[in-house]
Amino acid sequence: MRRSLKLAAAVLSGSLGIASLAACGAKSTDNNSTSAGAGSSSFKVGMAYDIGGRGDQSFNDSAARGLEQAKTELGATINEAEAKAGESEGDKEQRLKSLVSSGYNPIIAVGFVYQDAVDKVAKENPNVKFAIIDSSAADQPANVTSLTFSEEQGSYLAGVAAANKSKDKHIGFIGGVQSELIKKFEAGYTAGAKSVDPNVQVEVTYLTTPPDFTGFSDPGKGKQAAQGQLDKGADVIYSAAGSSGTGAIEAVAGAGKWAIGVDSDQAKQPALDKYKDHILTSMVKNVDTAVFTYIKSIKDGNALTGVKNFDLKEGGVSLATTGGFIDDVKAKIDAATQQITSGATKVPTAP
């Protein structure tokens, strides 16, 4: 989720560019760049991942799907740069600069942790287009586009599902990092649950606080937090914690209770297959849709600018139905959806 935006760019030019990308963990896939198979693409897109990177079964993987779609459908050459645990602001800046110096344009930064680095590098390179996911600064450079989501709306629906399915009217929320972004998930989830039953009890645990962002990449912390909430009596637990959430899902499944996934439909993730019978639903944040939409706007010569928000009404967030475990409360979820999309229900963005 980590709340959390992305980078795209163009053109590998020379061995020095390749070396600099390799040094910061990038991997080029420009040998498969064209959708029609007619030579290499001149449209080259770079992406810098958040902590956890590809394989987190969540936020970064959703961004990656949008990038892959651009490769397949738009003929883009893509290059991916992985983040490192405990890295400095300078590491983030260097990752972006390496993509720029190698000719990538646009560049997508995955996650709000890139905001300062994107602002600095974008100002130094006004002819390169950048996008950042899950962050929007009031004074960001004109060549930076923010891709944001109404996470609170999707989380409200998750709260409706949780409160309806909880036998003990006692549920839990685990946030990866206590940030303004993740608080949106908490606020929506709690509001949705209390719309069903004002007396429902909601346990809230955050794994870390800034500048410690390991709460998004430590399944052990997620498992421990979930066990603590289970011990207190929670029987449905929603985790907005990136790959740390996989640990929470493991603990909840082991206790025979319900887990709620985030960002991707986690019941469909291969690494979580053995827990799928205990994943009630997932609050799907369609980062792939935002990434592809942004890249296509560049390709079409009509680039998205400023802040582009993806809400429930336009499919930016949704609730997964894999497994059919929320089929029995579909009418209630549909009613809540209609109330939100019509504007009748205003979902809070802060706890």
Give a nutshell description of this structure.
This protein is α/β, with parallel strands linked by helices and 351 residues long.
Report what the structure shows.
- The chain is of the alpha/beta class and about 350 residues long.
- It has 2 domains: about 15-150 and about 290-310, Rossmann fold (3-Layer(aba) Sandwich), CATH 3.40.50; about 150-285 and about 320-340, Rossmann fold.
- The chain contains 10 helices and 13 strands.
- The protein has helices at about 15-25, 60-75, 90-100, 115-125, 150-165, 180-195, 220-230, 245-255, 285-300, 330-340, and strands at about 25-30, 45-50, 75-80, 105-110, 130-135, 145-150, 170-175, 200-210, 235-240, 260-265, 280-285, 305-310, 315-320.
- The protein has a 7-stranded mixed beta sheet, sandwiched between helices.
- Helix 2 (about 60-75) packs parallel to helix 9 (about 285-300), helix 3 (about 90-100) packs parallel to helix 4 and helix 5 (about 150-165) runs parallel beside helix 6.
- Keywords: Cell membrane, Lipoprotein, Membrane, Signal.
- Its main location: membrane.
- This is BMP family ABC transporter substrate-binding protein.
